[in-house]
Amino acid sequence: MALTIMNILLTGHNGFIGQNLYKALLKLGHNVDGWDWGDGLTPSAPYPQIAGRDVVIHLGAISSTTYPNVDQIFTQNTDFSIWLYDQCQAHNIDFHYASSASVYGTLEHFNEAGPFQPQSPYAYSKYLFDRYIMQNPADHIKVIGFRYFNVYGHYGETHKGDMASPYTKFIKQAKDHGTIKLFEDSDQYSRDFISVEDVVKIHCTMINNAQSGIYNIGTGKPVSFQVVAESIADKYNAKIAYVPMPNNLKQQYQKYTCADLTRLKPLIDPEFQSITEYINSHD
Description:
CATH class of the largest domain: Alpha Beta
Distance between the termini: 35 Å
Mean pLDDT: 90
Low-confidence stretches: none
CATH architecture of the largest domain: 3-Layer(aba) Sandwich
Strand order of the largest sheet: 2-1-3-4-5-10
């Protein structure tokens, strides 16, 4: 299928996934304008102008699970998202947005239709918007939710601090201190890690030919924190120091995540790079 050049508004273009997607869309020849909540926005300032766009890709959000201002989380992640979606419907503009696998909570089944068990204000804010989309479907525009699992990558994540992926945190610890701090029993905790490059490829593919719906974005192949830490330790000649998991994390810490890709695979049938392959191929 030939690429259709589009006029795109990308929110969250200064974030981790946003930075990488912004560059990729420009490289493909699309016309892309970025917008972030931090772009001088106050309650009286204007929301982004969307008239004349072909698609809005909405990645902007407060992604910290420990952010202290709960009201602000729902204002930005839910209320603003609803406003943007409604505007896209009114102007006949396709709408793509970032969902999150955090909506599944501590469950061990990961189908897009549910069930759901969000455990934090961030996760609940994402769940509420997913629910709004499902309860208010649009039949005249394409609406796609990208339900990210554990996204990691070599570029653009350092600003996230403690909310960065284990990949980024472990590499920083190995380089700076020669020791990676790892929770005890980390061989029993696995995540579906997907590289930001693979996430960007999915976005760029689905912008032209995907059907409306919410799609899990992962590899379908979980890897334990232990394996990730050992791979990084081996590469950088670092040690692993085991620390107890804080009690406040034990009840809400997911043991396992694994994207059910039944809905995604017929559309793109991707070949994903594993996180261990990624570690060995990046300096």
